[in-house]
Amino acid sequence: MKKKGIRYERELIKLLWDSGFAAVRVAGSGVSIFPSPDIVAGDGKRFLAFEVKSRKGLPLYISKEEVKQLVMFSNLFGAEAYIALKLPNSPWRFFAIDSLRETEKGFVVDEAAYASGADIYEVTGKSRQLRLEW
Hints:
The protein is of the alpha+beta class. It has helices at residues 2-18, 64-77, 111-115, 120-124; strands spanning 22-25, 39-42, 47-54, 60-63, 80-86, 93-96, 101-102, 106-109. A five-stranded mixed β-sheet has the order 1-2-3-5-6. A three-stranded antiparallel β-sheet has the order 4-8-7. A hairpin with a 6-residue loop joins β5 (80-86) and β6.
């Protein structure tokens, strides 16, 4: 499981570099006594912090503690906080913390939330995708 997570983190790092953002994996993320995201990235103007998740399907549940740690780091660092989600055979989707639906134990990305997630171009500010809402 850890190897798969690292592979997806490296895939996202390449995507960020290709989008003009320097990006690195954070050593010890998830095990340090200090809050730390999985990936930090920046282009000299904007800074991004990502908690990276991969799943075979939805929903994705995220603990309140994970979100709290990501927000704490991001606020201190001056970064925008995102949950980055990779599903098989699908492009990356990104979720700002305020777009997550809160549950009793944490937060959830379900089918409806997934459909409105941002793509890499929106997150990096390279373009905006128009979405029709019915």
